[in-house]
């Protein structure tokens, strides 16, 4: 008998300022929907894509690549159809590719009776993510699958640490409607970094992890800085410095590039500050010719979930 499942697959913020390729958190209000269905015919088929123009061939769509990796490893006695209802614009910096790569394997696993744990699912989803970014990074996939804040302790072998989410922490995002491909934004980065920058950055990562554990908002504020990646990428994002200045004046704890951009995120203590930060972001872009969307979101501690 055919079985199907409908999922909400959330957007995510990777890097979280200081944690390039290791830190990420999951958003609440922004995400794709996906339907995964078992079929008698073997194999993986993408049968519907709405929202954005993306390839239907499983080998060219991140959802198909991760699904095929899992399918070939498990060799189940059914096939799967995938429908993607895309709300997250590809090339957004809020984990558009990750939502699809994670959603297909998460749904297949549920339909198969959950034989795999979240780390194994993330491992298969990384194969899909690699199609988009030319690199098997898990800093969007881990928060999409586990929920909350996550730290990728190592990618090979994959080890993910779940971090606590302070109750009153809110994210605000602005997404300028331009596309920055993760693969291109990664190509800009230096292969080596000065030791003093590395020292600052790993002190900030350690401090941010400690601050999340202790709900220390003052320390979150001190730790949300990126001296390694932001100087190289910020020129891709129009008005980045103006947004950062405006949101810090509006009371945000910190502000940085979301993933590889162009989205910019800020973290704030309390919803009213997060909304004031949204206004500050909007005011900067309102006087420009660039279209944009803004979002205020609680941190989503659940991750991908079954709906209906
Ligand atoms: N299901 C999918 N969802 C999003 N992007 C996809 C998908 N399948 C393939 N892609 C390709 O991946 C690229 C977008 O991924 P990426 O550059 O990492 O953006 P994002 O930061 O939004 O994840 C685009 O080239 C897009 O065509
Ligand atoms: N660590 C990666 C994260 C990319 O995130 P995305 O949302 O832009 O795909 C990077 O910074 O390259």
From TrEMBL:
Chain ranges of the GHMP kinase N-terminal domain: 69-148
Subcellular location: Cytoplasm
GO molecular function: homoserine kinase activity
Highest taxon listed in the record's lineage: Bacteria
Keyword annotations from UniProtKB, A to Z: Amino-acid biosynthesis, ATP-binding, Cytoplasm, Kinase, Nucleotide-binding, Threonine biosynthesis, Transferase
InterPro entries, per the entry: GHMP_kinase_C_dom, GHMP_kinase_C_sf, GHMP_kinase_N_dom, Homoserine_kinase, Ribosomal_Su5_D2-typ_SF, Ribsml_uS5_D2-typ_fold_subgr
Pathway connected to this protein: Amino-acid biosynthesis; L-threonine biosynthesis; L-threonine from L-aspartate: step 4/5
Reaction(s) this enzyme catalyzes, per UniProt: L-homoserine + ATP = O-phospho-L-homoserine + ADP + H(+)
Major localization listed first in the record, in broad terms: cytoplasm
EC number: 2.7.1.39
Domain called GHMP kinase C-terminal: residue spans: 209-286
Pfam families per UniProt: GHMP_kinases_C, GHMP_kinases_N
Protein family: Belongs to the GHMP kinase family. Homoserine kinase subfamily.
Function of the protein: Catalyzes the ATP-dependent phosphorylation of L-homoserine to L-homoserine phosphate.
Name of protein: Homoserine kinase
Organism name: Winogradskyella rapida
Upper taxonomic lineage: Bacteria, Pseudomonadati, Bacteroidota, Flavobacteriia, Flavobacteriales
Gene label: thrB
């Amino acid at each position: 008998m055919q079985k199907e499942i409908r999922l909400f697959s959330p957007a995510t913020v990777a890097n979280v300022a200081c944690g390039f390729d290791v830190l990420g958190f999951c958003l609440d209000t922004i995400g794709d929907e996906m339907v995964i269905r078992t079929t008698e015919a073997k194999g993986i088929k993408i049968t519907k894509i709405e929202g954005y123009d993306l390839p239907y061939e499983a080998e060219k769509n991140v959802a198909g690549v991760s699904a095929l990796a899992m399918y070939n490893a498990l060799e189940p006695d059914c096939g799967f159809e995938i429908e993607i209802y895309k709300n997250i614009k590809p090339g957004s910096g809020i984990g558009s590719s990750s939502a699809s790569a994670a959603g297909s394997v998460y749904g297949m696993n549920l339909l198969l009776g959950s034989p795999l744990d979240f780390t194994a699912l993330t491992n298969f989803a990384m194969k899909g993510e690699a199609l988009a970014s030319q690199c098997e990074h898990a800093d969007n996939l881990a928060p999409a699958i586990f929920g909350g804040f996550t730290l990728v302790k190592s990618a090979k072998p994959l080890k993910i640490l779940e971090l606590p989410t302070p109750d009153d922490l809110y994210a605000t995002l602005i997404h300028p409607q331009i596309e920055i491909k993760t693969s291109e934004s990664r190509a800009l980065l230096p292969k080596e970094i000065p030791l003093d920058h590395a020292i600052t950055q790993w002190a900030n990562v350690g401090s941010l992890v400690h601050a999340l554990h202790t709900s220390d908002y003052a320390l979150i504020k001190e730790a949300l800085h990126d001296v390694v990646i932001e100087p190289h990428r910020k020129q891709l994002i129009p008005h980045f410095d103006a947004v950062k200045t405006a949101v810090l004046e509006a009371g945000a704890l910190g502000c940085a590039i979301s993933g590889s951009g162009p989205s910019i995120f800020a973290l704030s203590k309390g919803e009213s500050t997060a909304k004031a930060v949204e206004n500050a972001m909007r005011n900067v872009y309102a006087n420009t010719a660039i279209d944009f969307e803004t979002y205020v979101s609680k941190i989503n501690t659940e991750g991908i979930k079954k709906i209906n």
